[in-house]
Amino acid sequence: MPIYAIPPLISSLLFISLGIFVLKQSRATQASKLAFFLQCLATFWWQFTWFLLFQIPDNPFVHQLIKIGYSGIILIPATFFHFFATLLYGKKYLSIIKLYYLISFVFLTLLHNSLLIINGTYFNHFGHYPKAGILHPLYLTFLITVVIHNIYILYNKQKDQQTNNQDRNQARYLLAGFSIYLIAASDFLVNYGFKFYPIGFIFISIYLCTNTFAIVKHQLMDIRIVIQKSLVYTSLFAIISITYLSIIFICESITQYFLGYQSPFFRFFIAFFLGICLLPFKTHLQGLVNTFFIHGNPCDIAVQNEYLLKEVAQKEKFKAVATLASGVAHEIKNPLTALKTFVEFLPQKKNDPEFMQRFTIIAAKEFDRMENLVKQLLDFSKPSPLNFQRTNISQLLDDVIALNSMRIKENNIKVIKHYPTVTVSIPLDQNQIKQAFINIIQNAIDAMPDGGTLTIGVRVQDSLHPTPYTLTPKIIISITDTGCGIDKEGQKQIFEPFYSQKSQGTGLGLSITYGIIQEHQGKITVNSILNKGTTFEITLPYKKT
Amino acid sequence: MSNKILVCDDEEGIRESLKLILADNHELILTDNGEQCIDALKNNSDIKLVLLDIKMPKVNGLDVLKNIKEIYPDMNVIIVTGYKSVETASEATQLGAAGYIVKPFKSDEILETVKKYVS
Ligand SMILES: [Mg+2]
Questions:
Q1: pLDDT digits (tens, 9 = 90+) for A157-191
Q2: Are A117 and A249 members of one domain?
Q3: Which of A331, A333, A356, A362 to mutate: most B Cβ within 10 Å?
Q4: Residues with CB under 5 A from ligand 1 (ion)
């Protein structure tokens, strides 16, 4: 494949796939999605034909192919106006949109039935290229009119005091993007006999791709952040391509002159080198774009980002609630099924003492389970406000061990403590932290039904007397068992609600622990080796008050 | 003809319920995890039907099902689960489950389904 055919191939494929993707996925209005799709389709049409064209140096179909490809170009101004007007103004410009399409169809008819628009071809080093016909300037006039109209509506929108800030910014970005797109008009010079490789595809491609990205991301974030970002990359790409093409041109002339041949490796090398050299400019460009288009107001972006994060958090929350609901349903179904069945058999078996005995045991157990689930759910959903009290951490851990001493003895578990020699006291909500540790230690005990060792360590990281320049010291509490361990998958999910490896577990215990530790600005991690044991490590900030 | 049914569910309440429903007319083997379930199948060649829970600690019910079908391709396995998700149901069917009962079940429902496979 000739190298000159590659860019149009890439851009055409990008357009059609992105156009379809936007049409199917985006949350933007149906009308603007369709307009965007048409814009993509026209460009795909044109670029894909150019790809075919640059492949065939001589072929009787060349002239037909050029006309087919040029049809895409003819439609582009109208599709652009269609997209801008629909996105920014809804139905307001509908009749003008129709008018522009109508004019485009007149040009299309002329293109296909006469030599007035395109009259033959030029053959350049990159392949065939359409030669402007006698009425081609008329098409250019139409194009310039639509371009001015586009700029006019975008400019009005961004200036309009009655429009909200968001739409005005959007118009501002679209306007800037459109200006970059206009560089592609340099391709028309080739139609008039100038002999250079048409590089317009670069600007159009980047412009459309980035806009697609913006619309796709519409689902998640505001369009203008992305358009702003895309402007940065568009400019960067434009600078790289212009520098690249001129350097390539110079270098190729030199190598051609001295060596008598051109090396494709050399081209790749230069491209790679330039890419690396120009990357540091990204931040500068970002700054420039921000100053020009949001008038030096970084707060605006911060606010947008904040809004974005909130939206993401909200989505996460919904997801968590859904998981919670299905988890609750499942946890309640089992005891419910048992109770239902026993009640169903109660009338016919009420005189069977064995049945009655089983019923009493099962019912009591299942009711307990449901009660426990409700209690845990309440803890989970509504953590009571924290009541901080200065607490000796070793003392608190001893209390927790004492609370579980019965089961520790039952399971024949040995407890080893590694406490610091000095007393470490930090402000904690005693009840909540106790609950957090109880959940971990109970899990450890459950993991060692046939005995084992429970090791509890407390250590202080960094100095207890920090200067303003040292990090906040941390207290690290580790709880290690020698039980069955948790596999890698399990470790990932262990803090998620309703994840449990125990048959009677609700799967809420460690979620609650996680929540409590978070409330204390702490961190909890798990480390486990299957059949060797598990270590939970809780890090709490050391605070004086 | 044998009428032996193997129940595998991690919850005592569910095992007891199925026992209550089925024990009068069927011979039952109750197991509470996948390993026991497979062992029971190996030790009792006359088992006609397996009632299998999905959500169990350690070995998941679907894995147990896969395991059973590898060793006994013709064994009838009915899934008894609290999850009524289309994915699990279709996965279970693909793995060769004969039926799907959703908790909370009614005793008639169990008897009806069991009747198809066991005399
Ligand atoms: Mg279960």
A1: 878 777 666 667 667 767 777 777 788 888 888 88
A2: no
A3: A333
A4: B 10, 53, 55
